[in-house]
Amino acid sequence: MSLQRRLLPSMSALTAFEAAARTGSFTVAARELSLTQGAISRQVKALEEQLGCPLFVRQGLRVTLTPAGTAYAEEVRGALHRIRSASLRVIGAPRGGVLKLAILPTFGTRWLVPRLPAFQRANPEIIIHFSTKLAPFDFSTEDLDAAIHFGEPNWPGAVCDRLMDEEVLPVCAPAFLAAHPVATPADLAALPLLHTTTRPDAWAEWFVAQGIESVEGAGMHFEQFATTAQAAAAGLGVAMLPTLLVEAELRLGDLVPALERPHRGSRAYYLVHPSDRGGYPPFAAFRQWLLAAAQRP
User: What is the pLDDT confidence band of residue 4, given thresholds at 50, 70 and 90?
Assistant: First the structure.
């Protein structure tokens, strides 16, 4: 057997091995793959002979991976996952491909999605699959091409393209402001302050920027900006919100500035991707479009 052939086992052998390694049983693997137990055993034995080392220790009806089998199973599992993902991309979008993008929920629904029709008109052959991620993750363990990130450009092993800064503003319902007049930043400290857990320091940073010692402020906490905005519109207090995420509420008058004191911090929105995805055509097209869209008002 040539070295090249020895290093490229058949897909059926690798699939049988991965199922047996994951389940710890040839019988269970056979049931999962709709094969016989004997077929799984023969595939694994042929693979062991091809590699020249045992991958399992047979113990009656159960099998246990050898150290070599454990290491090999991890690599094979990742390779099979990538092959399945690649096949799905081709099946799902045979002409243009699929872009798998992680988004921040409120940024995605309130800023990105309303602008996506322009991208689709220019790139009708590209399909985007969205996932929600609130924190940085390891691209090597996630089936994702890119992510929208808020923070600093310090994502390990990834390229960060700056999209835009974030300007925040204290906002509330018009009726709430009428009942609780605000003339200075210090006046806000006595009011219920609504907090968003993804920006735990938003109020403290704003007060410091106004020359006031950090104020904690009593009030409710919400996981997402959309819920915080709804709470503010309902009159539950004053919220510190990014203006780009509450454009509609400000335009319609559901929310008004409690005080015209916007603040822009050092953190920003970034498009993040692993370096080996930069040339992937669906991502390259999306990246070009998004960088241009982020510069438009």
Answer: low
Output 214 or 269, whichever has higher pLDDT. Answer: 269
Residues 158 and 273 in one domain: yes
Q: What DSSP character marks residue 143?
A: -
Are the C-beta atoms of residues 220 and 195 closer than 8 Å to each other?
Answer: yes
Q: What is the CATH number of the domain that holds 285?
A: 3.40.190.10
What is the helix (H) or strand (E) element at residue 102, kind and residue range?
strand 98-103
Pairing of strands 146-151, 263-274: antiparallel
Residue 121 structural domain: 98-164+268-295
Is 273 found in the same domain as 160? Answer: yes
Residues 86 and 137 in one domain: no
Predicted confidence band of residue 210 (pLDDT cuts 50, 70, 90): very high
Q: Smallest Cα–Cα separation from 283: which of 149, 119, 109?
A: 119
Give the pTM.
Answer: 0.67
Same domain, 25 and 74: yes
Contact of 294 with 188, CB cutoff 8 Å: no
Q: How confident is the model at residue 93 (pLDDT cuts 50, 70, 90)?
A: low
Q: What is the DSSP code string of 210-245?
A: TT---------EESSHHHHHHHHHTTS-EEEEEGGG
